[in-house]
From TrEMBL, chain A:
It comes from Syntrophomonas zehnderi OL-4. Signal peptide: none annotated. The lineage of its organism: Bacteria, Bacillati, Bacillota, Clostridia, Eubacteriales. Keywords: FAD, Flavoprotein. One of its GO terms (molecular function) is oxidoreductase activity. This is FAD-dependent pyridine nucleotide-disulphide oxidoreductase.
Automatic annotation (TrEMBL), chain B:
It comes from the Bacteria. It comes from Syntrophomonas zehnderi OL-4. Residues 81-110 form the 4Fe-4S ferredoxin-type domain. GO terms for molecular function: 4 iron, 4 sulfur cluster binding; metal ion binding. Keywords: 4Fe-4S, Iron, Iron-sulfur, Metal-binding. Transmembrane segments: none annotated. Pfam families: Fer4_11. This is 4Fe-4S ferredoxin-type, iron-sulphur binding domain. InterPro entries: 4Fe4S_Fe-S-bd (IPR017896), 4Fe4S_Fe_S_CS (IPR017900), ET_IronSulfur_Cluster-Binding (IPR050954). CDD domains: CooF_like.
UniProtKB/TrEMBL annotation, chain C:
The keyword Ion transport does not apply. InterPro entries: 4Fe4S_Fe-S-bd (IPR017896), 4Fe4S_Fe_S_CS (IPR017900), Aldolase_TIM (IPR013785), GltB (IPR024188), GltB_archl_type (IPR043578), Glu_synthdom (IPR002932). It comes from Syntrophomonas zehnderi OL-4. PROSITE patterns: 4FE4S_FER_1, 4FE4S_FER_2. Belongs to the glutamate synthase family. It catalyses: 2 L-glutamate + NADP(+) = L-glutamine + 2-oxoglutarate + NADPH + H(+). The lineage of its organism: Bacteria, Bacillati, Bacillota, Clostridia, Eubacteriales. GO terms for molecular function: 4 iron, 4 sulfur cluster binding; glutamate synthase (NADPH) activity; metal ion binding. CDD domains: GltS_FMN. This is glutamate synthase (NADPH). The keyword 4Fe-4S applies. Its EC number is 1.4.1.13. Keywords: 4Fe-4S, Amino-acid biosynthesis, Glutamate biosynthesis, Iron, Iron-sulfur, Metal-binding, Oxidoreductase. Gene3D superfamilies: 3.30.70.20, Aldolase class I.
Automatic annotation (TrEMBL), chain D:
It comes from the Bacteria. One of its GO terms (molecular function) is oxidoreductase activity. Residues 27-191 form the Glutamate synthase alpha subunit C-terminal domain. This is Glutamate synthase, alpha subunit, C-terminal.
Amino acid sequence: MRYVIIGGCIAAMGAVEGIRSIDKKGSITILDGEQRGVYSRPLISYYLAQPDRFKNLAYRSAEYLDHHGVDVMKGWAVQIDRSRREVVLHDGQIISYDRLLIATGAAPFIPDISGIKAPWVKTFYTIADVEALDSILTKGHNALIIGSGLIGMKAAESLRQRGLNVSVIEKERHILPRILSPESANMVNCLLNEAGIKTQCGEELTAVNENQANFASGLCLPVDILVLAMGTKPHIELAMDAGLKVNQGIMVDEYLQTSDENIYAAGDVIETRNIITGTSEIMALLPLAHREGYLAGVNMAGSKSCAYEGGIFMNSLNILGISICSAGSLPRAETEFLVWQEDHKYLQIFLDGDFLCKYIAVNLPEVTGPLTNTIADKIRIEKRLWQHFMTSPTLSAFPDVYWQKLRKEANYDYNKCS
Amino acid sequence: MKVVAWTEYCLGCGLCEIYCAAQHDGYNGNVLKIFKKGRPMHRSRLLKAEQGTWLNTCMHCTHAPCINGCISGAIKRDPNGIVYVDYERCVGCYSCVMLCPHGHVRPWSERHQVLKCDLCRDTGLPSCVANCPNGALQLVD
Amino acid sequence: MAHNIMMPAFKVQRDEERCIRCGVCVRQCANNVHNLDEDGWMWVQDDKCVACHRCAVLCPTRALNIIEYPLDFRGNQHWTPASIREIYAQAQSGGVLLSGMGNPRTYKNYFDHLLINASQVTNPSIDPLREPMEMTTYLGNKNHHSCGEKPQLKLDIPLMFSAMSFGSVSINVHKSLAVAAKSLGTFWNTGEGGLHPDLLDFGRGAIVQVASGRFGVHPDYLDNSAAVEIKIGQGAKPGIGGHLPGEKVSQDVSLARMIPAWSDAISPAPHHDIYSIEDLAQLIETLKVATRFEKPIAVKVAAVHNITAIASGVVRAGADILVIDGFRGGTGAAPMRIRDNVGIPVEMALAQVDSRLRDEGIRSQTSLVISGGIRNSADVMKAIALGADAVYIATAALIALGCHMCQMCFTGLCNWGIATTRPDLTKRLNPHLGSERAINLLAAWKHEMMEMMGGMGINAIESLRGNRLMLRGIGLSKEELGLLGVKGVGE
Amino acid sequence: MTIINAADYDNYELLQMLEKMPQPEIQISHVNGQRYIACGWKNNKRLILQGTVGNNLGAFAEGPQIVVFGNGQEGVANTMNDGQIIVHGRVGDIAGYGMRGGKLFIKENAGYRLGIHMKAYQEKKPVIVVGGSAGAFAGEYMAGGTIIILGMNSNQALIGSYCGTGMYGGAIYLRGEYPSRNLAPNLKKEVLGADGLAEIKDYLAEYVSFFGDTMENITSAPFTRLSVEKKRPFAHLYTGFVS
């Protein structure tokens, strides 16, 4: 069996592991369009902050890839010939496949406004982006980050660490709009300001002039470096051209199979089911990309046996020592929630009846593992138990129902132990 | 391999945490030295809940969410199946903390990295198991 | 009451150089001796310390030591510190002094004045690693002439676990010993507190007790057993009954004893249906009928002055097994005066009873089991050579499980999870480890016994029984030698 | 019903035969001191015994229904767990010793140490009803259950000495006059009117149905209920200290 994977990021690594869990012999070729080897995108901010310390961004080592018998080819795919089961590369090379995985990921969104092509306007998505930024940044200059999502925040952190004056501009009403609630955003905002990152919400970029950014409200800010972090859009062109079923992202069935039985897709390029809301959407998250890749790999190598149940939104990020973890979604606009707050710690949980549907934890990462899994596994825990937990949210106070379930799953017999 | 904790025999004495801390960071089980001269950071935690006390330790899951969710590839599995942290690579994003269903992986805030059980893979029998006075911890396959 | 004038019995020494403030001692002491306050200050209340050693054993840096309190009274051979302290205690409380475990006094220990024989030249010794060695013995009436086969207990090792009631000891002690007995091919004894429902599977390996309180005695209890033992007396407190204080009668104990939780459990001194040997005969008969003559009936008496006449009567009353408990036998609680002053050493009682039963020609009607302070395999060998069929151990078994002999069993605060019914303390004895330790102990004793038997040129334990020629007395008067029925060294 | 003549068998033959008989109801005539009848029985067989039964009738039993037309000797219902024994006559000493369940009805007098160490547990509540009087030590060490002494069919004093000594649970009901010097100290005494008899009314009714008196006659005299306030009489007897 000959496996070809377009894209060399997290989903691709998951797929390698998935394929190799079943098929130890088949050849695996990764088409690395970026030509940078297999690396982890979230690490670029660490690279920018401390280029010497984080030179190596490899997600898996070269030995690891060797060990799994993976052939990494530099080159990007320009066409998929489904009838001949071939991929055409930019340099005309033709790679044939038995099973193909599209894991092309996404690209930063760049608005079509004047001045956006200025040399000091950058995106923050690839190693090349970081290297470009690195070459122009100067300590003490003003950096403006447009967009306060995960990428924007990590960019802001690393630029701040490099000694720039950093401001983050958000078009929505509060920072990290996809992750935080208004209440928690307020707190994080204060902590960020203390840490030296200025923020400004409700401002939409309209134009970029010489060393200056203009906003819809009339605000005008001086700027030396402008980083666009306004979200991403999936790389679906290849799939569209090949005639695969595509919506916002590539459409796949529960086995990660596209409308072509020999072609699978995984990672940021696909639409998946949000298991809290039940809707199909793009969930560009690293843990999900790995899982999707893995399951796609298993299904590609064997019979279609491993169904993907979907995922939940989850994020953990550290900005200048402020830890923010969040998982889940709100099934309705109005959802009941409970809040606990102490010093610089904050926890907000959202309840949908007896089910936890979302939480936001600021500087309280210790309890988030069980919270995430309570959401993902849809474990029913009564509201009064949550109320008790929220009086002092520690692992020991976590509802016993959860621990009992975990222990039941482990289910060891003492007599059989060593 | 993993350490399984039995609440029915756990006394909550806390020796597991103490010996866990002493076994790591080059202290080779010298409890006195790590507590007097070092920074005792135990990996596994003793929890106290309704059902009693138990050591919250790593299950070294087959499909370990911490490995799959690690952004830097710092959490790895060794040939014996032990899931451990490569401190050369850990950047302290706490994704693993957020993903661990047992709440076992925890932040090592002063180093901006994470702590988790590595089954004392450099020294043989896990220190918590070897020093549990009541056999409440057992190493199982 | 005003200030207590008694100083602590023990002093806890903490090596500050070694203490790491980990708090293990604080969490492990049920007597609240150790305290760690919010300032990180460790302080110790010596007067609460009972020297159970739990803290010292678990301390990860060996920072703790416990010594006898160094403040001594002025030397006085008559008014010893102990006698003075006992008066202080009674003057303070007005109560009967209570104590646990066996008699700690320095009375003559006849086991320590007996030496075992070995073969040289004229009779070759046997190597137990090479030669078969029969350790099996049977308990029960061996007199088959009168009416057919009598029920017997088969023991793979001439040792059994003696009666300790659930309530006086924790359920995990019962579990440990029940599992160990099964694995060793011997029996354990429920004591008078009934059988906990969790241990029903181990009932067939148990000798179940019927004592004056009749706790937990019902037809299923009698049926689901190996033998039934009527407890008349106990070596630690001959002549008096038992009293399990309400604090120890937890829900679980209540279940086994079939009395309401947290009520006192009182065993009267006598069985009120036994005021004579004839009455005893009737209770034995009743139990035989109730168990359809399928189980041997044992009678346990304390070793007292006229034990020979009592033993003769008990055997004639139909006891298949006669158990004699010496004055060093343990207990969960006994009035100290009685524990220390009532009864006689079991060695002497055994020798005399064995002789008397032989003289009367009724020795074959019963098996003799002795108990009360058996410390090691040599004690077992000496007891068998003096005439015992088998030996009961209890204190030694508890020590194997972790008992440190602090003798405070009656408080119910046993830090080793043995003499307690508090769930948090009970769990300190993991029965999986407990049974393993009990099995190890008896396996080791068994091997030692085989070595000693081999040395004597004896290859079956039953050949040693009553074989007093294998013993010589040392440091004993002629009269003592005569009573023990052994020759002196050199004879 | 199966009828057996006890005179045809020796004691153990009789016991063995009874053990093996499958019939639910057996009548035995000419009982003359045979011991251990129904000992350790765990069934609901009904036994009708005519004559004087020997010691330990129904000891350790659970469930049998026994009627004795005659007298009982010592140890009737000794350590009985459940069942019912009705004696149309008198019984000897230690009737109902350590009894934990079931009922014992005696038409005439009971001997010494009646219901010693009786105890109740959960749904098991032993009951003894004596139509006549009881000897010394009735209810000694009593920990639970009910003893009712009616004094209807007796010329003796209702109770002997030391009634209720060391008692720490349960209740004793005495009908009519009794020598109060025979009561152990520390007992709580309540004189009950007819409305105070609710607890034992059913037992009295059963007594009437077995032995044929009238309820009016029984309740014509006042009842005294003996119980204990301190459930733990020996809690302060002992002192432990670190020796």
